[in-house]
Specification:
The protein is α+β, with helices and mostly antiparallel strands. It contains 7 helices and 21 strands. Bound molecules: zinc ion.
């Protein structure tokens, strides 16, 4: 059902766009979202009705601040210079679409981005500079930067020698004919003299060929016992209650009402009270710019300003606020940006061997491809 809706939407967009190109449009402008830009300013500058912003609900207004500085967006104008439609990426998965409806009224909606993603593989001889060589071979600068970051703890890029090579399996993401968003490296090796190091991607982290992880010092823990994860972190989700697309900036852990909720790490409680949508809600500030949040609680057991330790009970699971059933909404922010908590929290011990077997299966699959490049 959802797929059919998406296909219809795609056809609709295609039709409106091609229509725009042939009949109604005078120009299509590419622009860059700068650091002082806000949606309100954008509407004002383009003579669009400000109520497109003011009519959004509180949560959607907040989401509008997620647009990244440097994002490329598009405005199509008709012969008289009026905006016919505008497309602004909100994150890697969703875009803001402003358009004139059949009744000649402006509308704003948040819809999935139709980007194109291809899996590619390549072997590259490194000449002088690592980043330059990768960029030249792939025509993908963000990929080169990302690869450098992934390998830099294993490779000394200042001491390269003739014959060094890198192999990559990666996903290239494009939108409107441009590289777009994360250029994900699925697997890579770097060969220096007779030495070959590998890195393999699995659920947000990079492992070596024995499926070992370089564990960093921080050790955020899973914040409760749970029966199942009812919703994962995503930058795109069909909201079950509101019936709109909205990112889900956290993980939902489902269990009984009254299940104890623990602080994921040492910190100071910065908020404990009611938040619209999230019900009874706690926010904790941790070192190094991290914050964690806990929503839909049935009871709060800490006060704002209180110090808490890892694993200390801070509240009980509930279904307060806008919720379809008892669960904990758990989120982590770094310097104000939401990240996927699954990439940060430590895996529970008893699942470790099971997880390792899964990772090793992936490693084997990709290593075979890399070794034949
Ligand atoms: Zn949630």
């Amino acid at each position: 059902m959802k797929n059919i809706r998406l296909i219809l939407l795609f056809i609709f967009l295609l039709a409106t766009f091609s229509n725009a190109f042939t009949l109604r449009t005078n120009s299509i402008e590419h622009k860059t979202w700068n650091d002082s830009e806000t949606l309100l300013k954008f509407l004002e500058q383009n003579s669009l009705p400000l109520k497109l912003y003011y009519n959004l609900d509180g949560e959607d207004k907040k989401i509008m601040h997620d647009i990244n500085v440097g994002t490329t967006y598009y405005i199509a104008k008709d012969c008289s210079g009026g905006v016919y439609q505008a497309v602004i990426p909100l994150n890697e998965e969703l875009e803001i679409h402003i358009y004139k409806s059949i009744e000649n009224k402006y509308k704003l909606e948040i819809i999935p981005i139709n980007y194109i993603q291809k899996t590619l593989k390549v072997k590259i001889k490194i000449d002088s500079s690592f980043i330059e060589s990768v960029k030249k071979a792939t025509n993908n600068y963000p990929l080169a930067l990302n690869l450098h970051k992934i390998l830099k703890d294993k490779v000394n890029f200042k001491r390269l020698s003739k014959g060094d090579e890198v192999g990559i399996i990666y996903k290239e993401k494009t939108w409107m004919n441009q590289k777009f968003g994360t250029q994900r490296v699925l697997a890579t090796y770097f060969k220096h003299k007779k030495n070959k190091v590998y890195k393999f991607f699995y659920k947000g982290r990079y492992y070596d060929k024995r499926a070992h992880l370089r564990i960093k010092t921080s050790s955020f823990i899973v914040p409760c016992r749970y029966r199942r994860i009812s919703s994962r972190f995503t930058r795109k989700r069909w909201h079950p209650i509101l019936h709109i697309y909205r990112p889900h900036h956290g993980i939902d852990y489902a269990n009984r009402v009254g299940t104890p909720i623990w602080a994921t790490y040492n910190g100071v409680v910065t908020y404990a009270g009611w938040v619209r949508g999230y019900g009874r809600y706690i926010e904790i500030k941790h070192p190094n710019g991290y914050r964690s949040v806990y929503g839909h609680l049935s009871r709060i057991k800490v006060k704002s300003g209180q110090r808490v330790k890892t694993h200390q009970v801070i509240g009980l699971m509930g279904s307060s606020g806008m919720s379809t059933g008892p669960h904990l909404h758990f989120g982590i922010k770094v310097n104000g940006k939401w990240i996927n908590p699954a990439n940060k929290i430590v895996v529970v011990k008893n699942t470790q061997s099971k997880l390792r077997r899964k990772i090793l299966k992936e490693v084997k699959k990709y290593k075979r491809i890399l070794d034949r490049l």
